[in-house]
Amino acid sequence: MTYASGRKAEYRADPLFVDRWSARAYTGEEISDDILFALFEAARWAPSASNSQPWRFLYAKRNAPDFDLYLSLLVERNRLWAKNAGALVVLVSKKTHIRPGSSEPTPARYHTFDTGAAWANLALQASLLGWSTRAIGGFDSEAARRQLNVPDDYAVEVAIAIGRPGDKALLHEDFQALESPNQRRPLAESVIGARFPA
Ligand SMILES: Cc1cc2nc3c(=O)[nH]c(=O)nc-3n(C[C@H](O)[C@H](O)[C@H](O)COP(=O)(O)O)c2cc1C
Asked: The domain containing residue 119 runs over which residues?
């Protein structure tokens, strides 16, 4: 079936999942605290191993003094479109966890996995509220660590642009032809069944 975004699904997943997509064309509107914190709130309710909640969100809204610093962390190709974001986020995860009944931190085996779940919640909540998000791996995570004072026991995971989606004419010409929802490989290539073939 074809969804409002033009995406085609094989089974009837809720449009929340299928119609979320990572637009790059943003209007340049700054996001309000009300909306931004609704996204963080959604992320907060992600599941995590032992409820350890390893995610931490660092952010700069577009009119904040640190927005240019955040933008400078991105590789140039990402800066071309992310400069119109309403906020930029750097998502980090705590690599250790103090388990109930213990006072010593131990390695948190699932910190990255759990933080990915928080990102997904954030992205879906944004989509519900009419905002677009795009995760960004193309950034200097070591510079982010240094410049944002990220402690050693946190992993720098990803940057995230959050923007009010707008007309593709707002975009740098390199990205205009790419500005539509992509598709997915067939489900049968992801759902293996009980075993991989021997
Ligand atoms: C960890 C991660 C890193 C990504 N890095 C970038 C990036 O550096 N630049 C970019 O334009 N998109 C980046 N993306 C966006 C993906 O290309 C996009 O999510 C994917 O093509 C699926 O499209 P959709 O989000 O619109 O469904 C990244 C996504 C993830 C999850």
From this structure: 24-166
Cβ pair 33, 64 in contact under 8 A = no
Which residue owns the Cα nearest ligand 1 atom 7? Answer: 136
Mean predicted lDDT score pLDDT of the chain:
97
Instruction: Tell which atom from ligand 1 comes closest to the C-alpha of 139.
Output: 8
Token readout for 186 is 């067939």
Task: Tell me the CA–centroid distance for residue 135 and ligand 1, in Å.
Answer: 5
Residue 17 lies in a domain: no
Q: What is the CATH number of the domain that holds 109?
A: 3.40.109.10
The predicted model gives 117-137 an average pLDDT of: 98
Give the tens place of pLDDT for each residue, 70-108.
999 999 999 999 999 999 999 999 999 998 888 899 999
Q: CB within 6 Å of ligand 1 — which residues? A: 21-22, 78, 134-138, 158, 181-182
Residue 105 phi/psi, 5-degree rounding, is -70, 140
Atom of ligand 1 at shortest range from CA of 123: 25
Whether residue 89 lies inside any domain: the answer is yes
Neighbours of 103 (CB within 10 A): 6
As for how many domains the chain has, the answer is 1
